[in-house]
């Protein structure tokens, strides 16, 4: 028989004699005649109230072990609860202790503990209401991503995690090696004395991927519309609230889409998955609105109900230049806009999401399509309040000669990209795509302010515990 969760018990259509609940004790309190415990199994935010009454059993021997953190099984009758706010409670008849818990040593206590402290016990923080809620929302958000693309005719593809080319051309890659770097004298060498990566297990120098885009382009120019959803890695030493060394990215790529179509898809996608979470996770969201971000539901409405502003880079500069005194980095045409400028546009000026497009080619990745002005490229970023960029995307350069020239100008060796250039040699078509940072999207929907707290086991500069 499948085990029944507390979520299922609480949704039961009728009382149940002989119900079984398993989980971890949140709290226990004793009155003169009875004891009460809150039991949570992670299936939902709500705990099941357990009643230990003298007329249903003698619990004096087990009660001392029913402490915060203990893992137990309770058998009894699920009855209508007289208490406000919950439909049922469980009248205990039998108790089994799976694993005890020393309340003096258990780091997760009911009293409020800081996010900073909980990061040091990341293996136990999913037992808190807040992190369990975060993880349930994360699972729902991931499901809604797959559902959105599946329902819209996209194929889910898997692109390599170990790669031999830099998909962003930005040089922010982790090397993936089997060579023993602790013994430099034993490393295989070329005639010139350099490390001979042809002796690597995979036959060449390899890295952890920064993006699945380039392989995604190969697949989109065969299947039409694809998306990836996988881990990506950036060896960028950015210690901020929104940068992680390992994060998950969703990357749709579409043949025959131009920049305009790409922006439309990005907006519809963000709205759709935000609505899914609002619809599917009301109780968990309420926790975040109550304890983390009081304006959460208004912020989410701002995403789902407003048309995102479309703003060209050149128009953005015209808006920003007159208020340059606000910024550390002064804006003029050609300056790469920083977080402070983006947040001004989104939070102060438009007060809603902005899609910033057509940026100067110098501030853009090599693969973005050059505009006819010769100065700007068909790239776009979706900027949202509090976080800034959640999506980066573009129409791709599909003209072989233009792409080759852009790579040469950027000092990129074309050799490892021979196959990417082939896509422009054989049946090249206009195509576009974007990448949504899943953790940043999680920050958006939960109101959580730090990327370290929207994933179970964060990887950030200086930190790889667990
Ligand atoms: O703007 P980025 O670097 O774009 C790409 O990687 C493209 N190849 C995507 C594509 O067109 N297929 O990254 C895309 C998104 C960013 O907008 C941001 O949300 C997230 O990925 N991101 C990060 N999230 C957390 N930590 C980091 N260090 C991130 N770097 C990028
Ligand atoms: Mg970007």
Can you put this structure into words, describing what you see?
It is a single chain. Helix 3 crosses helix 5, helix 3 crosses helix 6 and helix 5 runs antiparallel to helix 7. With about 475 residues, the chain is of the alpha+beta class. It starts with 5 loop residues before the first helix and ends in a 20-residue tail after the last helix. It has 12 helices and 16 strands. It is about 30% helix and about 25% strand. Bound molecules: 4-amino-1,4-dioxobutan-2-aminium adenosine-5'-monophosphate and magnesium ion. The site of magnesium ion (MG) has 3 residues, from strand 15.
The CATH homologous superfamily of the largest domain is named: Bira Bifunctional Protein, Domain 2
For this structure, what is the CATH class of the largest domain?
Alpha Beta
- Order of strands in the sheet with most strands: 6-10-11-16-15-14-13-12
Number of strands: 16
Q: What number of structural domains do the residues give?
A: 2
Shape: elongated
* H/E series: HEEEEEHHEEEEHEEHHHEHHEEEHHEH
Main sheet summary: 8 strands, mixed
Mean residue pLDDT = 96
> What ranges have pLDDT less than 50 throughout 5 or more consecutive residues?
none
CATH-assigned fold name of the largest domain:
BirA Bifunctional Protein, domain 2
Radius of gyration over all CA atoms, rounded: 27 Å
| Percent of residues in beta strands | 15-25%
Count the DSSP helices: 12
Secondary-structure class: alpha+beta
End-to-end Cα distance:
34 Å
Proper CATH architecture of the largest domain: 2-Layer Sandwich
Bound molecules: 4-amino-1,4-dioxobutan-2-aminium adenosine-5'-monophosphate, magnesium ion
